[in-house]
Structures
1.
Amino acid sequence: MTTTATTTATAAQPAGPAPVVSFRGVSKSYGAVRAVADLDLELHPGETVALLGPNGAGKSSTLDLLLGLRTPDSGSLSLFGMTPQRAIEDGRVGAMLQSGGLMEGVKVKELVGLARDLHPRAYPLDRILETAGITDIAERMVGKLSGGQEQRVRFALATAGANDLIVLDEPTTGMDVSARQTFWGAMREQALQGRTVLFATHYLEEADAIADRVIVLHRGRVLADGSAAEIKARAGARRISFDLDAPVDRDALSALPFLTSLSVSDNGSAAGTGRRTVRIQSQDADATVHALYGLGAYPRNLEVSGLGLEQAFIALTTASDATSATAEEAAR
Ligand SMILES: Nc1ncnc2c1ncn2[C@@H]1O[C@H](COP(=O)(O)OP(=O)(O)OP(=O)(O)O)[C@@H](O)[C@H]1O
């Protein structure tokens, strides 16, 4: 079996069960655009993995390759040690993608019934409808659903049987808060049953709350891979906030060492107190705070905290963009 430039199983599998997903040096370009660049990736049973990345990072392309909807230009990939097509035929993979319309001229329960009929390890219809929170709309025509309801139906189609891997591309787009909660509750159940869940999202708070592993893609490559806590720690920066009663010299604050961002809100002027709240992001909070005292400032309500996943994500991708820009400049 060939292992290059095709979506095939890797020839030599290590001892023990094959990984759920294995990418080895996978690349995919569309004309001049390199969407996936020499990607290595391995997912294991029971992991809940969030795929993050700015627009155009290559998330959907990676999921399309994984599901055999696109063929790599080079490298090899496998699901459970077999081709994606074979794994899907065996009913081991359920997917909920952004693209692709739903069949409109049928009732919800008929469409879900069709997915059941095609699944070798299908669940009972009532259970699928209930898990996806669509029992009450089972008699509706698919063409009459709202965007959020359509997403729930897609979810039902992806979980119509006992899959070992569930792949979700921005699954909660268009869902309201309660639908999201139901959705992630159902996903947690799947993960507790040992299933691997891989989802691409732009909602970083979802990744933080749900995933036990976060992979940040940028320009088709893995920029960071670890728990949300590890990603935040890797971004390195800390948030510092404090109040100042005396007028501040903004230039002096801007010149503090290791500072990566500064905002000063003049929240006391209306009350006539002159109090300002300063928020700083710093690569070395200890050094920044030390220098702050050196300015003769008397910060009140000083707080130093780690970055949220969102700020860590921005810090990582911005730093990577800056490195790429410097490299491009040097190459000119
Ligand atoms: N069919 C296509 N033809 C040409 N270029 C494409 C095609 N599909 C994707 N691309 C390009 O490949 C790159 C990666 O796109 P992809 O959709 O995989 O990113 P993404 O991370 O899923 O983005 P988003 O968060 O915006 O959905 C982008 O530059 C995109 O414009």
2.
Amino acid sequence: MTSAPGSLRPASVQPRTLGDLAVAVSGSVDPADRDLLVTGVVLGSVDAQPGDLFVAVPGARSHGARYAQAALDAGAVAVLTDEAGLDLLRAEQTAVGEPSHQRPVPVVLLPTGSDPQRAAGAAAAFFYDHPSTALTSFGVTGTNGKTTTTYLLDHLLTALGRTVGLVGTVETRSGSRVLPSRLTTPDAASLQAVLATMREDGVDVLAMEVSSHSISQRRVDGLHFDVVGFTNLSQDHLDFHGDLDRYFAAKAELFTAERARRGVVVLDDEWGQRLAATADIPVVTLSVGRRGTPVGDWSVRDVQEGPAGTTFTVAHSDGRSMRVRTTLPGSFNIANAALALVMVVESGVDVGTVTAALEAAGGMSPAVPGRMEQVADRPRVVVDFAHNPDALALALEALRPTTAGRLVVVFGATGERDTTKRPVMGRIAVEGADVVVVTDDDPHAEEPAGIRTQVLDGAREAAAAALPGRDVDVLEAAPRALAIRAAVLAADDEDTVLVAGRGHEVWQEIDGVDHPLDDRVEARAAVADRAQRTTKEHSE
Ligand SMILES: CC(=O)N[C@H]1[C@@H](OP(=O)(O)OP(=O)(O)OC[C@H]2O[C@@H](n3ccc(=O)[nH]c3=O)[C@H](O)[C@@H]2O)O[C@H](CO)[C@@H](O)[C@@H]1O[C@H](C)C(=O)N[C@@H](C)C(=O)N[C@H](CCC(=O)O)C(=O)O
Ligand SMILES: Nc1ncnc2c1ncn2[C@@H]1O[C@H](COP(=O)(O)OP(=O)(O)OP(=O)(O)O)[C@@H](O)[C@H]1O
């Protein structure tokens, strides 16, 4: 998890009265407070600024009203809440012994029976005057590929001369303003502020990742996407959603008239096929050819691997087609690139214009931080974000054909998240690599050794069951920096070391404390150290 400060806000805003904000959420306000002006809307107390309206609604762990005092201390001037929140606020004021002559904090009260989760999006969209309407908006969802596809959209739309704003796991970008992200999809109030910042910066198109959590938690309320895209669905986040059906249902909600105008669905897994059959907005389908899937409206053909990358054709059944090139490795990146292309075409750009723009831009090869990012070449070290079974399998599969020596993988599993994927990832690592180094990811408050044991159980079981002649070394090493170092130092020049799971992340959270850790930095340092040792050995 990235530890990042603040969030993007527009430099100039139109203050709004509490009375008008109350109308926007169908709430009520004391007549004496109706004309109070607020200059921002915020959902997290840590982001509160002077003049803000603090939205205090219940979450999974606590009620936001518990943090109202912190928001007020930071300068918030009013609180929007439900009845439970009002009770908490009043109880707190009594507990701290507010003098009876002091007026209670101004409150916008949500109507009884309303869904408090809707409040932040509705209030912030109204406050910033519905900034999404100034943008053409692309939203990407799916278990894997969201970040990569939004970078591909960004690259393609920029090549088409558009001014692109980006929202996703790695960063939030509006014009020259860039902030590392805390979440893949920010909370509803922060998101509306980001969109208003984009409007102020002259951004005219949005490329955005939409996580399943964000759909369930209504973080994307107040936004109506022009085109949404679905990459794939596989096991992840079961700690939050419970089972795959519910995980799918959360993603499928993006493909409804409330959230989007039209959609593009990759058909390469059963979930994409199910989504295409059930979506209630116009949807076009795309097949890439993984696992013998049905042919979609659009399909990928004539894939040619070469030293300068992969060239392929994305063709429609009506005869339209685009021939493009990418240097991003792995078959999954053909799917991501094809999805970005079709989403742009479905937004109304014709294929000739797209092809010409890409020719001028030299193809579809954006740098995507921490996604199959090669940080050294002897041994080749690749840092990737694969942190679930499907992504890990595909990342290893992508590297195998170009690895002359052994394929080494260093990875761990996240604490306090989906525990069922741990042994599965251990097994997948053994199936795809020759050396498996199990280490730590973000343990959070869980005991790291216990997490490693669960991954190792799956790995050792698979190693024991491996076909004769296929010897896979399964090792345990921690902390993570040491595991990366050990793997790199033990590698031969022709080996590939895949460091998977954390990609661009620069903090490791252990028991509530963020420790600086960047896999790319650790890997480069280890490679430099290894080179020095080799030189020394040769000179002795
Ligand atoms: C499980 C989950 O998604 N939780 C998110 C959710 O928290 P919650 O419902 O538990 O809220 P809570 O902690 O009970 O707090 C209740 C209210 O008090 C407020 N509060 C809370 C604490 C505080 O100090 N001050 C404060 O104002 C919160 O803003 C919230 O409105 O709402 C919070 C406010 O928006 C989020 O910060 C929080 O993200 C947590 C930190 C998180 O780790 N989320 C991850 C799992 C997540 O959302 N991941 C997806 C990507 C998944 C993927 O595809 O890989 C993402 O979009 O990033
Ligand atoms: N289309 C795809 N199908 C399967 N795996 C993919 C795909 N695209 C990328 N991957 C793998 O998944 C990892 C994560 O990719 P990416 O960051 O683009 O996805 P994401 O959906 O944004 O992930 P997250 O939501 O966890 O941030 C990559 O590092 C790569 O290993």
3.
Amino acid sequence: QSAKPVIPADDSLYQQFGGQPGLVKLMDDFMTRLLADPRMNPFFKDVNQQHVKEQLVAQFCELSGGPCKLKGPDMKKVHAGFDIDRSAFNALVEVLQQAMDAQGIPFSAQNRMLAQLAPMHRDIINVP
Ligand code: HEM
């Protein structure tokens, strides 16, 4: 009888983000920074911030190879109700980078994550 091949999931990026506790801390700080940023505050002040943080934890967990799956509407639907142009997208990424820096997440890990987020601009930017 042949052994089943064991293919270990690569969760190295998830580990570099500090696993679940690391992601929860990251998103708490990220949301605080989004609300403090005059460019981002108008987008986030009236939404269910706790829910958005939880969804972001699940999304980053999944993207980093952790044991999660983001459930919910796709990125296009989620953002359709907001006017998001390229500069707003870039501003959000800038705030995210500051939050990742503040958590001491290694630059290489930040870049691996940003590389997965970048293509989402096609679904999220909806204003020329
Ligand atoms: C790569 C970039 C982005 C990612 C990965 C991302 C991801 C997400 C996720 C996972 C949610 C929660 C969805 C849910 O409730 O099921 C969310 C919500 C939201 N995002 Fe983004 N987002 C990005 C960029 C942006 C940008 C650029 C803006 C505005 C400038 C923005 C504004 C919002 C707002 C306002 C909500 C709350 C929507 C609501 O509850 O009605 N996002 N985003």
4.
Amino acid sequence: MAQAKPFVLRWGIISTGHIAAAFTKDLLIDPKTRDVHDVVHKVAAVGSRSVEKAHEFIERNAGGDKSIKAFGSYEEVYKDQDVDAIYIGTPHTYHYLNALDAINSGKHVLCEKPVTCNSAELRSLIAAAKEKGVFFMEALWTRFQPLVLEVKRIAEEGSLGLPVLLHADLSGNFDINNIPLTHRILDPALGGGALLDIGPYPLFWAILALFENPANNSTAPTNISSAMLNTPLTSVDSSTVFNLTFSGSKLAAQASLSCSITLNPLNPGVIMRFERGTIIISAPIYCPKEFKVQYLGKSGKIEKEERRVFEYVGDGLHFEADEVARCVRDGRKESTLWGHEKSLLEMSIFDEVRRQGGYVFPPGVEKVRG
Ligand SMILES: NC(=O)C1=CN([C@@H]2O[C@H](COP(=O)(O)OP(=O)(O)OC[C@H]3O[C@@H](n4cnc5c(N)ncnc54)[C@H](OP(=O)(O)O)[C@@H]3O)[C@@H](O)[C@H]2O)C=CC1
Ligand SMILES: O=C1OC[C@@H](O)[C@H](O)[C@H]1O
């Protein structure tokens, strides 16, 4: 029987920075290399604050493909009839307005993490997306990677019992004493600091393993306790620790999470401890390639250990793009894997951690407050 033609999703790329380049390159990888046959991606337009940068971006990341339009504004991409979905790769504090403009132009949106700088902005975007009837998702790419799907299957299949304790850390040394104070990782006006930039990943693993566990019945943490260490350079958090307790349902579990912009990555970066075993995830925790499962006997001795390795062509950002394409094709407005509820949980936890740590954005940064 002849195979149905793959669905083509036409993307408009907003901004020309580091992650927009990585995402674009992944879009251009043949999906068959990852055994995907039902969707394909077309980069239709790139928007930058400078048209020269948009041209350079296409030259550098898309082999100068003349079919890709280069625009000197984001607005022109939102208005382009040849664009179905917008990818937003601007700094955190621009996500809200960029996503809102795209949604109001009737486009589907995939917006980089953290999806907004607070939960009130996110609620406003979700309402706008619902009103316009468009798909909207935070680009929490880790959720769609094959290794993560397999970890979730093993975590919930029963042999390990229930999760009890999870430790996760993501650190990256940004050399903060030798970069400009206007760098997005240091500038409070761009949402600088560890929590908003790399905090989403340790939190993601807690959401996957604890919040999503069927015994938790989608119950929010009953306790959040945290502390921030601020850099005197700009006062953003150089390190943050935050602990979550899930005890509002049949699950009794805790997550101990941390992130730092002054340390190198910790490896392994995630350790999930279950009643009868442990899952150990190798760094980098945003796109791990390897994990181990240890099955424990009654005395706590390791009875069996399995190591799993995952390989694919590209950086791994294409899996989230495939999810967007499938949702758009099927008329779904949010993903079942990383839907609005989970982004809202993330942003409300970050609101609370910032409140406890005294992290206040400069006036005017938060476009919606609640
Ligand atoms: N999923 C992932 O693995 C990663 C996600 N990210 C997320 O992506 C976002 C961007 O990060 P990254 O790509 O590293 O950032 P970059 O600084 O490399 O790029 C940001 C781009 O945004 C545009 N921009 C618009 N307004 C501003 C402004 N006021 N200051 C600076 N740039 C601006 C610029 O593009 P132009 O001039 O063309 O308009 C710029 O190139 C962040 O929210 C971050 O959390 C980052 C890294 C990895
Ligand atoms: O999302 C991210 O993952 C990788 C980090 O290096 C980067 O700063 C962050 O934005």
